[in-house]
Amino acid sequence: MKRRNFIRQGTLGSATALLMPSFGFATTRTQAYGVQLYTFRDAMAHDALGTLEQIAALGITEIESARSAKGHYYGLSPQAMQKACGDLGMTLISGHVHLDDQFEQTMAEAAQAGQPYLICSSLPSQGQTVDNYKRVADAFNSAGEACKAMGLKFGYHNHEYEFENHQGTVLYDVLMDHTDAELVHMELDLGWVIVAGLDPLDYFKKYPGRFPLWHLKDMDLIKKESTEFGRGGLDIKEMLTHKETAGAQHIFIEQEEYTDNPLDSMAHNMKYLNNL
Description:
Elements: H1 3-8, E1 33-36, H2 41-46, H3 48-57, E2 62-66, H4 78-87, E3 91-97, H5 103-113, E4 117-120, H6 130-149, E5 153-157, E6 165-166, E7 169-170, H7 171-178, E8 184-189, H8 190-195, H9 200-206, E9 213-216, E10 218-220, E11 225-227, H10 236-241, H11 243-246, E12 250-253, H12 262-275
Parallel strand pairs: 1-2, 1-12, 2-3, 3-4, 4-5, 5-8, 8-9, 9-12
Antiparallel strand pairs: 6-7, 10-11
Helix pairs in contact: 4-5, 6-7
């Protein structure tokens, strides 16, 4: 099941309550790039530590985890995940989680892991309406308050459906307009924005500084699925030119579909970025 369909089926709940040989590339860029570990979901489930070693060999320096059948850290404890990343010269920055009745435990784990961000990966399924998105915004503000009290930062990661219209209003804009920028830190998935027929640059200009985290994802606009950098419809060089306007501090590469396998695809993506 594709991740966008899988996570959309999750519920929000209360806001309060195959491994391949390693590749190495010299890195001279100043921008540190990270990876969303859902890209390596099968490998992480099979061998988390070995997969992290291979990811580090690609020149990746930041990690964003994703909820899995083995928990938020692929069977590792939060402390072990933090140590594993640190030993490999990487930093655990963020994690994709659900805002549910286990959120207090999720926050406690993130604090133990020493990661700054918790990112909600899915919206509730109550409906694509302005009123529902206002309720979600309230829930996000409350979650942001709870995270702030624990020294964490709460955020939200979009897909394409948030850019649907209801009563002449883009629903994603409802989230932006009704969340506190100090409490809700948006992670903009640039790939899903262009799949929705919109331009991320317009959002950078409309909401400057609101997107401290990115998912840098090229998209095949015919198949509406992710692809290797340079093979889809995202102007990656142009996006990076405007990262300061967006407020981007952490850029995570995520690829859900591959020409062959995730390690080869990520090697291609890193080489593409190095050649820009």
